[in-house]
Amino acid sequence: MKTFTTKAFKTLAISALLATTGVVVGVAAPAQAADKPAAPKYKLSKPVQQALAESQKLSAAGDNAGALAKANEAAALPSLTPDEVYMINAVKINIAIATKDNTLLEQALRGALSSGLVPPEDQAKFYRNLGALALQHNDYATATSDFEKLAALNPADTEPMIALAELYQRQKQPVKAVAMLGKVIDTAKANGTVAPETVYRRRLAIAYDAKLTADIQPAAMALVAAYPNPVNWRDALTIFRDGANLDDQASLDTLRLMATVGALNGERDYAEYAETASNRGLPGEAKTALDEGVAKGMLSTSKPFVKELSGVVTPKIAADKASLPGLAKDAAKAANGKLALSTGDAMYGYGQYADAAAMYKLALSKGGIDADTANLRLGMVLAKSGDKAGAEAAFKAVAGPGARKTLAQYWLIWLSKKA
């Protein structure tokens, strides 16, 4: 079987989430001239007021170097008040924007925040830009701190959370990254929306790459529940198969689910399904897998493997199918449910879902079989025959723990999407 790879899971680009260029920050305007008082909201000493007024005059004249020197002159004055710290840095911010000096901008933004006077409506803008600026020079720790503050300011905004998840991952903190992406998903639900598919896929990719066993299947199930397309189903079930160490029976049941959700893709998948069914003594199901693979262009009748397997299973089908009524009668008389279970499996392969359901129920009533296997397959045939409530009850009866419990949960997800 082809080994699963996370190459298909694209990293969420931080550059797409953050405004790392064209920084625009709203701040209160400083005094316009030396003989005009500062805005009433801010109380400035005469030396500070005069230096800032001169700074603005120089800036308006295009002398930004001189303007910065005057702002620094004000900053060097002793015993500055919070009002003065804020206004000095407001002037510096405007100079930094005019000169496209990101180093100065970052210093000024932090300086303004240190005053405690940045209005609440502007703090998010400040921290977003600070995070972007820190990212420009790969200062992940500082960017993380800024985006954590940004996220705290507006808990309903998922963009800072997405950025944080990537920052945690870049700093080799996959547990925190996965948890944060889970928070993105939960927050989106609380907002009445669905997080982007990339968030679900990224969460699964990080969990898989970091071997976070407890997080992999929840992330995979969440992905197919939110975005149940064939690609996501295939990725989720491939990951499940790779990590579950399945026996032949559970492997067959997984392939059956993949066939049902349209997740089989390529020659290898259909060949494996057909061969697994054949090895389990199910020629009808093996032939169905071969025929479907050929019909979808995944298998070629000219390939030796297809010719050989078709030559093995096709001659068996007529007698096998004709034997089912007699096997059903024998199963009713048997001391345990083993024959009923195997007969139900054969009926499944021929699409005789109602008859198969009766056999699985008989097997459960007689006992002597693995109840989880019987309930899982009972749910499968009831789902395929349209008995949604019955299928749901059967799947929920799979007690687990183990692969069959996980498969039942996947089937329940698929069932929930059916009309």
Structure overview:
TPR repeats lie at residues 124-157. Pfam families: TPR_19 (PF14559). Keywords: Signal, TPR repeat. InterPro entries: TPR-like_helical_dom_sf, TPR_rpt. This protein is an all-alpha fold and 419 residues long. It folds into 3 domains: 31-118; 122-227, Serine Threonine Protein Phosphatase 5, Tetratricopeptide repeat, CATH 1.25.40.10; 228-416, Alpha Horseshoe (Serine Threonine Protein Phosphatase 5, Tetratricopeptide repeat). The protein contains 22 helices and no strands. Helix 21 (388-396) runs antiparallel to helix 22. It starts with 13 loop residues before the first helix and ends with a helix.
Short description:
The protein is mostly helical. The chain folds into 3 domains: 31-118; 122-227, Serine Threonine Protein Phosphatase 5, Tetratricopeptide repeat (Alpha Horseshoe), CATH 1.25.40; 228-416, Alpha Horseshoe (Serine Threonine Protein Phosphatase 5, Tetratricopeptide repeat), CATH 1.25.40.
SSE inventory with pairings:
Elements: H1 14-17, H2 46-60, H3 64-75, H4 82-99, H5 102-114, H6 120-136, H7 140-153, H8 159-170, H9 174-190, H10 197-209, H11 213-226, H12 230-244, H13 248-261, H14 267-279, H15 283-295, H16 304-322, H17 324-333, H18 338-349, H19 353-366, H20 371-384, H21 388-396, H22 403-416
Helix pairs in contact: 2-3, 2-4, 3-4, 4-5, 5-6, 6-7, 7-8, 8-9, 9-10, 10-11, 11-12, 11-22, 12-13, 13-14, 13-22, 14-15, 14-16, 15-16, 17-18, 18-19, 19-20, 20-21, 20-22, 21-22
Low-confidence stretches: 1-40
Termini, distance in Å?
A: 33 Å
Category by helix and strand content: mainly alpha
Number of domains: 3
Number of helices: 22
Strand proportion? under 5%
For the sheet with most strands, the description reads: none
Count of DSSP strands: 0
CATH architecture of the largest domain: Alpha Horseshoe
CATH class designation of the largest domain: Mainly Alpha
Rg over alpha carbons:
33 Å
CATH topology of the largest domain: Serine Threonine Protein Phosphatase 5, Tetratricopeptide repeat
- The proportion of residues forming helix, as a percent range, comes to over 70%
**Mean pLDDT figure:** 90
Taken in chain order, the helices and strands follow as HHHHHHHHHHHHHHHHHHHHHH
